[in-house]
């Protein structure tokens, strides 16, 4: 509740031109959005591009945010829309290989070996998610990683609850082999 | 019994979160026991749940958070406003007190009021005279040019007029001659017509006279 009120105050100040309020708001949610984007795009440069697109769209739509729900939910709705557009555009790009999970970009660009080891689980999870079609992956993401209710997911994606449940069930069926292999490892 | 997976699809997550009523919970448990697919999905859901917990938040690389977003407030530094105000005031005061700066051989000179008005006046007069001379020359040249132009225009006009008058006279004469000729033709036609009718009359008269003579002769014969 405190956070909610604070979000609204930050939004109000950002709208009146306060850069520091906007930066505070972005810093509060950028980790969440970046990691979400990473799980949806599987590579850090795409995740950065998508995250920036999401925050740009959030800023542009900020005057339309009426504060009638949690800011996070509203923001993730924009993120879901932007993700769909982004993946569709990327799918049209002939140079992109859809199932390529970036193996060691973090290692090679940013961190020493031990830090790479720390994110090895993340690569494994991304490889698993990469086997799912985009719409099933979005439902898995919103349900298991963002912990939204089915009603909230339905509101964010504009898809009926029954369809979301079916997509989730199909995703679980599809993941069967993946998780078994992971358990063995 | 064949399972359509609907029950588990609908309630699996609530089952994991233990949010189901005992009755539905029992139904789901039965479905999980009897259907291999549903059982497998349950296992995957648990594994996915664990995977989500295993995810380590990756730090966001440094990026420009305001590049396309918040426009900074257009605020000018305070001293700039004050400086502008002070400069304006100084300029106004300098105008009011007629401050004059002049540089001569002895150095730099600042003067208030109209001490050097005479100097200025003579300077203005000189300039004015120069200007007058220039103007007079210019006007004279302009007059000469104008009179030349006018003379040429007059000559052209006279030539044009003569040409025109001659043409008009020729036209008038033509018209007159044509009119007289047509009148003459008309008169001639009328005379011919009258002549013809006179001739006809004469012939008729002659015939009549002949008849009269004949009848007179005839009467004379009878009398004898």
UniProtKB/TrEMBL annotation, chain A:
<keyword id="KW-0731">Sigma factor</keyword>
<dbReference type="GO" id="GO:0006352">
    <property type="term" value="P:DNA-templated transcription initiation"/>
</dbReference>
<dbReference type="GO" id="GO:0003677">
    <property type="term" value="F:DNA binding"/>
</dbReference>
<keyword id="KW-0238">DNA-binding</keyword>
<dbReference type="InterPro" id="IPR039425">
    <property type="entry name" value="RNA_pol_sigma-70-like"/>
</dbReference>
<dbReference type="Pfam" id="PF04542">
    <property type="entry name" value="Sigma70_r2"/>
</dbReference>
<dbReference type="InterPro" id="IPR007627">
    <property type="entry name" value="RNA_pol_sigma70_r2"/>
</dbReference>
<protein>
    <submittedName>
        <fullName>Sigma-70 family RNA polymerase sigma factor</fullName>
    </submittedName>
</protein>
<dbReference type="InterPro" id="IPR014284">
    <property type="entry name" value="RNA_pol_sigma-70_dom"/>
</dbReference>
<dbReference type="InterPro" id="IPR013324">
    <property type="entry name" value="RNA_pol_sigma_r3/r4-like"/>
</dbReference>
<feature type="domain" description="RNA polymerase sigma-70 region 2">
    <location>
        <begin position="25"/>
        <end position="92"/>
    </location>
</feature>
<keyword id="KW-0804">Transcription</keyword>
<dbReference type="Pfam" id="PF08281">
    <property type="entry name" value="Sigma70_r4_2"/>
</dbReference>
<dbReference type="InterPro" id="IPR013249">
    <property type="entry name" value="RNA_pol_sigma70_r4_t2"/>
</dbReference>
<dbReference type="InterPro" id="IPR036388">
    <property type="entry name" value="WH-like_DNA-bd_sf"/>
</dbReference>
<comment type="similarity">
    <text>Belongs to the sigma-70 factor family. ECF subfamily.</text>
</comment>
<dbReference type="GO" id="GO:0016987">
    <property type="term" value="F:sigma factor activity"/>
</dbReference>
<keyword id="KW-0805">Transcription regulation</keyword>
<feature type="domain" description="RNA polymerase sigma factor 70 region 4 type 2">
    <location>
        <begin position="123"/>
        <end position="175"/>
    </location>
</feature>
<dbReference type="InterPro" id="IPR013325">
    <property type="entry name" value="RNA_pol_sigma_r2"/>
</dbReference>
Automatic annotation (TrEMBL), chain B:
<feature type="transmembrane region" description="Helical">
    <location>
        <begin position="79"/>
        <end position="99"/>
    </location>
</feature>
<keyword id="KW-0472">Membrane</keyword>
<dbReference type="InterPro" id="IPR027383">
    <property type="entry name" value="Znf_put"/>
</dbReference>
<keyword id="KW-0812">Transmembrane</keyword>
<dbReference type="Pfam" id="PF13490">
    <property type="entry name" value="zf-HC2"/>
</dbReference>
<protein>
    <recommendedName>
        <fullName>Putative zinc-finger domain-containing protein</fullName>
    </recommendedName>
</protein>
<keyword id="KW-1133">Transmembrane helix</keyword>
<feature type="domain" description="Putative zinc-finger">
    <location>
        <begin position="8"/>
        <end position="39"/>
    </location>
</feature>
């Amino acid at each position: 509740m405190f956070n909610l009120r604070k979000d609204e105050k930050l939004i109000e100040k950002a709208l009146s031109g306060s850069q520091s309020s906007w930066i505070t708001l972005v810093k509060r949610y950028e980790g969440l959005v970046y990691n979400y984007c990473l799980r949806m795009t599987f590579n850090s440069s795409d995740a950065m591009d998508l995250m920036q697109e999401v925050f740009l769209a959030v800023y542009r739509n900020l005057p339309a945010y009426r504060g009638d729900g949690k800011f996070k939910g509203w923001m993730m709705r924009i993120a879901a829309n932007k993700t769909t557009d982004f993946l569709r555009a990327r799918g049209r790009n002939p140079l992109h290989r859809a199932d390529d999970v970036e193996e060691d970009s973090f290692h090679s660009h940013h961190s020493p070996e031990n830090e790479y080891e720390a994110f090895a689980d993340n690569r494994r999870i991304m490889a698993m998610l990469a086997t799912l079609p985009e719409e099933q992956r979005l439902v898995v993401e919103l349900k298991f990683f963002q912990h939204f209710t089915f009603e909230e997911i339905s509101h964010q994606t504009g898809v009926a609850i029954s369809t979301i449940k079916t997509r989730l069930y199909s995703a679980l069926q599809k993941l069967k082999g993946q998780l078994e292999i992971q358990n063995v490892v | 019994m064949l399972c359509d997976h609907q029950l588990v699809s609908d309630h699996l997550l609530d089952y994991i979160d233990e949010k189901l009523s005992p009755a539905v919970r029992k139904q789901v448990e039965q479905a999980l026991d009897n259907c291999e697919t549903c059982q497998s999905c349950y296992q995957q859901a648990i594994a996915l749940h664990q995977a989500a917990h295993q995810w380590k938040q990756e730090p966001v690389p440094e990026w420009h958070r305001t590049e396309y977003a918040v426009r900074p407030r257009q605020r000018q530094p305070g001293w700039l406003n004050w400086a502008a105000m002070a400069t304006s005031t100084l300029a106004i005061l300098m105008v009011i007190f007629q401050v004059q700066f002049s540089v001569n051989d002895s150095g730099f000179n600042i003067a208030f009021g109209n001490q050097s008005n005479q100097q200025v006046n003579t300077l203005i007069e000189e300039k004015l005279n120069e200007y007058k001379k220039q103007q007079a020359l210019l006007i004279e040249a302009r007059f000469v040019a104008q009179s030349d132009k006018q003379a040429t225009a007059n000559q052209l006009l006279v030539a044009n007029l003569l040409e025109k008058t001659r043409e008009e006279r020729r036209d008038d004469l033509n018209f007159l001659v044509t009119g007289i000729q047509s009148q003459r033709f008309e008169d001639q036609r009328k005379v011919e017509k009258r002549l013809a009718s006179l001739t006809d009359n004469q012939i008729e008269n002659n015939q009549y006279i002949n008849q009269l003579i004949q009848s007179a002769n005839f009467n004379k014969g009878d009398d004898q």
